[in-house]
């Protein structure tokens, strides 16, 4: 039986990103034109065994998608559903996963402020659950990849880029 395997050689920029994420770099900003694979790379390169959770920022996006919210549970009540950032912080319950923040430049002011808190350094980042009062912190291994289509990185707020 013959197996025909062909290794795909990545362009150098993507290989560099893959190497960086596999070496433990845990915060990366990817910028450039749409359709070049920024999101795909964030979702698949490096260690994503503990989960990769995507947020697509829009002007209409709410913090519900970031941290979570109460939702009808089908039993006449409400249950809490974690948002993408909280899911990424928790990962597999032992180690954190990855948060992919797509199109950060399109986030509303309220969401942007919450993302600043969620993307702060592991020593500073925390979030208190509104129902249980439990203070969540990112677990070891949490990583974040942020994407944007802006052409000039200087257009992004310093408070945000300093976190990466």
Uncertain segments of ≥5 residues (pLDDT<50)? none
Q: Describe the biggest sheet?
A: 4 strands, parallel
Average of pLDDT: 92
Strand % is 15-25%
Oligomer: single chain
Shape call: globular
Major sheet: arrangement of strands = 1-8-5-2
The CA-CA distance between the termini, in Å, is 48 Å
Total helical elements? 6
N-to-C order of helices and strands? HEHEHEEHEHEEEH
Q: Which structural class do you get from the secondary structure elements?
A: alpha/beta
Considering DSSP H and I runs of 4 or more, what fraction of the residues is helical?
25-40%
Number of strands: 8
Radius of gyration: 17 Å
Question: What does this molecule look like?
Answer:
- The chain has 164 residues and is of the alpha/beta class.
- Helix content is 26%, strand content 21%.
Which features characterize this protein?
single chain, 6 helices, 4-stranded parallel beta sheet, globular, 164 residues, two-stranded antiparallel ribbon, alpha/beta
């Amino acid at each position: 039986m013959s197996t025909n395997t062909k290794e795909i050689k990545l362009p150098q920029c993507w290989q560099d990103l893959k190497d960086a994420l596999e070496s433990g770099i845990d915060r990366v900003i990817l910028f450039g034109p749409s359709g070049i694979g920024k999101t795909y790379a964030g979702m698949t390169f490096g260690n994503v065994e503990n989960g990769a959770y995507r947020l697509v920022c829009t002007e209409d996006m709410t913090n519900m998608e970031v941290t979570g919210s109460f939702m009808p549970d089908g039993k006449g009540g409400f249950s809490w559903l974690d948002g993408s950032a909280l899911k990424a912080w928790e990962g597999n319950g032992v180690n954190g996963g990855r948060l992919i923040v797509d199109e950060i430049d399109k986030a509303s002011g309220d969401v942007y402020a919450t993302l600043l808190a969620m993307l702060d350094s592991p020593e500073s980042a925390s979030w208190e659950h509104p129902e249980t009062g439990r203070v969540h912190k990112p677990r070891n291994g949490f990583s974040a990849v942020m994407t944007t289509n802006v052409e000039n990185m200087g257009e992004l707020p310093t408070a945000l880029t300093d976190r990466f």
